[in-house]
Amino acid sequence: MLDRLKIQIEDFVRFNPTVRNLLASYALFKWGGKRPRTSAEAAHIVDKLCQAARLATSDSMMLRVEAEIARVLPAVDPKDVPWGDFYPDYTDDLLYKAIVLKPYVSEREKGVVFISFDTRMAYLANSTDLRQFEERYTLVLAPQWSPPHSVASYLFPLLYPGEIICLISNERDLSHFPRMSDKYKMLPLYASNWVDPRKYTPVSLAEKDIDIFMLANFAKYKRHHAFFAAMRDLPCHLRIVLVGQQDSGRTRETLLEEAAAFGVRDRFEIRENVSEQELHDTFVRAKTSLILSRREGSCVAVVESMFANTPVGVYEDAQVGSRAFVNEHTGRLLRRDGLAAQLVEFVESSAKYEPRKWVMENGVDCIASSRTLNAALKQNALNNGFEWTEDIATLRWRPDPRFYDPAEAERLEPSYEDIERRCGIKIARSKVG
């Protein structure tokens, strides 16, 4: 009981709005008003204030923190940011989670490079020639977390000579990023907009032998313990499967210990680091899936579940981007109280949902989303006086950016070599197939 209470108290403190705002206020008091003596000190103050912004749960607190960051920013020399203090791997040999979507055509027609996660902007900051990169390629960013306040999100635009086409993790990012820099040009596409429908083959209801499936890494923010608490009141006959991988020092054993604290260690199956085929089979054989995060980024698993034709449950007040796709056709918005009873009803009514049909008809798949991105990039180029004669490659995500058509990898290979030779940026080759 003591172990269970400890887990629940820590979770309460972590997500309680009053506690979070108090912590944000303390950070603002501690770091606000300081006069940095050096550029590096100013960058570190920005980092501390970004942590305060991510804690804030009210718009008024967020705006107060942002105003203080804006006061400190002029003291940062963009050419003298100690990126390694914030992103230890920023000098990695390869830029991962990135893909070239369009080759450089001419001085009148830029190529397109897509990077996912704002942390990778720190790698670009280490480029030998960002100006030449910007002259030849349009940069598209898919952020990782919401709210997106980070050292990279604030300081990279100071260094980057051009505009950044920015996607979102949450609808609120449409206002967050422009307040950080006017170089961000927003496009309302999520990280979960790039799921490939070909990778999921739905099965009949009779073949669905898993009642509840949860795909989530083992980090605390995924809140497995909330599921364990609900399991205490779920019927024993329900088959429950958890799939994930260790994160932030939390392992499979960590989850099993937490489950034991709630008395449900023997009530579910847990699988770690599964293959793509096993993940597919688990998704399509589940009657329902579940995400219990209170706050994170887009959460691709939500939309993957929909393409597997498995309705998904998320909290009605979750700050999770893909909650925008949960409706009466695709899943259920859950209340935090009485979760077990809601899950029983969800499983019993799972046959009425048609999530795959809805996401296909509403353009959530990678093909439709790539068309949307292409149209936006084309219009932006034309508005800026450039030409557009060649479209981008179709982008898909699994679990990194990949080409939808393997032939595109061969077509764009010279662009990878061009970027490395001219700008010192070596982009990891994306998997095909």
Structure description:
It is a single chain. With 433 residues, the chain is an alpha/beta fold. It has 3 domains: 16-76, no CATH class; 90-192 and 365-423, no CATH class; 197-361, Rossmann fold. The chain has 17 helices and 13 strands. The chain has helices at 2-15, 17-31, 39-55, 59-72, 83-86, 120-125, 130-136, 151-159, 173-180, 224-231, 252-261, 276-285, 300-307, 339-348, 355-361, 366-383, 406-423, and strands at residues 98-102, 111-116, 137-142, 164-168, 184-190, 210-215, 240-244, 269-272, 286-290, 312-315, 331-334, 395-397, 401-403. The chain has a 6-stranded parallel sheet with strand order 8-7-6-9-10-11, sandwiched between helices. Helix 2 (17-31) packs antiparallel against helix 3 and helix 13 (300-307) crosses helix 15. The longest helix has 18 residues, at 366-383. The mean pLDDT is 95.
Quick synopsis:
With 433 residues, the protein is an alpha/beta fold. The chain is built from 17 helices and 13 strands. A hairpin with a 3-residue loop joins strand 12 and strand 13 (401-403).
What's the layout of helices and strands?
Elements lengths: L1 H14 L1 H15 L7 H17 L3 H14 L10 H4 L11 E5 L8 E6 L3 H6 L4 H7 E6 L8 H9 L4 E5 L4 H8 L3 E7 L19 E6 L8 H8 L8 E5 L7 H10 L7 E4 L3 H10 E5 L9 H8 L4 E4 L15 E4 L4 H10 L6 H7 L4 H18 L11 E3 L3 E3 L2 H18 L10
Parallel strand pairs: 2-3, 3-4, 4-5, 6-7, 6-9, 7-8, 9-10, 10-11
Antiparallel strand pairs: 1-2, 12-13
Helix pairs in contact: 2-3, 2-4, 3-4, 13-15
